[in-house]
Amino acid sequence: MSVSIKNVVTVTLLEGGQLALVDNPNVVTMLTSQQDGPLSSASRYRIYADSAAVADDFGTASQAYDFALSFFGTSPNATNAGGFLVMGYWRGADESTDATAASVTGIQLSEATVVSQMQSISDGTMDITIDAVAESLTGLNFQSVTDFAGIVGVIDAALVGGTATEDDQKIVITSATTGALSEITFATDPGTGTFVGNILALSAGSGGYLTQGAAADTLLAETKLAAITELAGQVKFRGAMFIDNPTDLESKDLAEWAQANSVLMYDVFDSPDNLNVDPANVVWDIKLSSLTNYRMLYSKTGNRKLAASYMGRAHTVNFGAENSALTMHLKELSVAAEEYTQTEVTAAKTVGLDIYTTIKLTPCVLTSGANNFVDERYNLIAFVDYLQIGMYNLLKLTATKIPQTKRGIAQLIDQTEKTSRQFVRAGVFAPGTWSSPDYFGNREKFEQNILDNGFYWLAGSLAEQTQSSRENRESPVIQGAVKMAGAVHSVDLLVFVNR
pTM of this prediction? Predict the structure, then answer.
């Protein structure tokens, strides 16, 4: 036999780990208070890629379907850019919950393995107490079973006060009663025959779990702020709106939440007072509070579907494509445009309200930059996410390490520049003249990089890093500057005429 080649040559594969994905900026949610649909406090959301699925779940006469038609009827919409619509639940009124039954649930099992084990058992046993009644299951014969259904059938036939089922490769025993007195225990070994509780993960310590019954209850109505906070803990989204109209107080609370959580929230206002420069006007209050993630629209008729269509159109950028960044100015939506006087148009622009109207008989959005522009907020939220995930993946993918050296810090700078170039390519940033008095590093180099590239990144000096930072294995601070590409919303033409 030849000597192993490993005596001369060994090979070690240093494979990178699993990478994190950026949050999808085109996942948006509409929250509904409808309680006769599929949503409840126990099931807060469902995901949809078309309006037909919404109709199947909520019905064609529902508000949810009506708003979904406006969302999916907008072209393009978020689903055309890799996103989807989340229908979320707001408990706007007291909700009655049904009494539940007690159950013991095993762990997920391999069907082939468990069936093979069970086929050798003809004297299976286990004791279990259901609703304070002890049941002793004996003589369980599994020799002819060929799948989970067969195993469940043998156990179910032997139970008196409950039923056995299979759910996602887990064996579940459920009490036949519901309510607070519905109780169940883990399966125990009676000391005779072959105990099957361990094999099926229905005994204590085998990985299964108990759920005791609960009485019917009434859950009190919750605030919109509580609803969106709960929903955000269950599913990630970057755009949101309520089908039900928030009060002024709720709007301010939601605006503060949106700013703190990097979510764009869309709301429609309809009172003439909302056009006034007045601290008592919640629109002006939100603008003065710099809550730029709260996107405010105006509709004389109070058409809240304007927000659904607007949100669907705004969240359509693919940041991996070239020149894909957009502005909402002059875009067409899937709702009826409304007529406004010039006074109303000017007032809306002053306080920070976007409107949907007509120019030369063509429908279009007129945007206001008083509370920033929606595309700028959308782009910057995405940029921060791409920066964070890109840097995290660099550190995680490196099979050895990023050293605290000039070479290592250069790798970090390369990553920030890679992300910035992606956003230049998408049309978010662009080369241009730096007009702010703020800068860092060498001013000439700083301004030249902005002029040439549209961005500039600079890492702090390793030599000047504190010892504590070095011992904590921290990178020097990395500073960046980007030049927004902006968008042309209006044009002034000056013509000289010569006779």
Answer: 0.88
